[in-house]
Amino acid sequence: MERNITWHQASVSQKNYRNKNGHHSGVIWFTGLSGSGKSSIANQLNHLLHERGIHTYLLDGDNIRHGLNSDLGFSAEDREENIRRIGEVAKLFADSGAIVLTAFISPYQKDRDRIRASLPEEDFLEVYVDCPIDECEARDPKGLYEKARQGHIKGFTGIDSPYEAPIDPEQVLHSFDYDVKSCADQLLVLLEEKGWIKKGA
What we know:
Layout: H1 14-21, E1 26-31, H2 38-51, E2 56-60, H3 61-66, H4 76-95, E3 99-103, H5 109-117, E4 124-130, H6 133-139, H7 144-149, E5 171-174, H8 180-193
Parallel strand pairs: 1-3, 1-4, 2-3, 4-5
């Protein structure tokens, strides 16, 4: 089918936005099992960056499924489409000069790699929130593991659906060994080292 669409080049560029904001922009992609602490750490980092005057936006898995992706289920195909859409939204935020934090289980390596490949190399940071499944299940903040064990939820990541841990992430956070604040502080150091934000900004 012929698609009569043409990319419209905006007069205000990503570079203009970055210069105005005084910092780099890009995507910080948090991945990990349910209950690993992704959302909590991303939220804490977002708060710390906001206090520094950094322009950010947080995209959280559950929140997105209330609106943009409310039509999607949890089949492998729907999960792939879920991540594809989020990747496109995240790219738009990054293009606007923001540091966008995304907290999604995103269980498949190929889906995360596709998002990485769609952005300049220096604009994507994969953060693996590594927490043993036993601990995630013990926390079970939403009661999902219990429902999965009882058979009420099918295709639950870590129980009867696979999770593919990142092969070479920019940062691994051991959320079983460090609290939320410590994990967020580790990411602040990473962002300073990568030149996304100024040291001690």
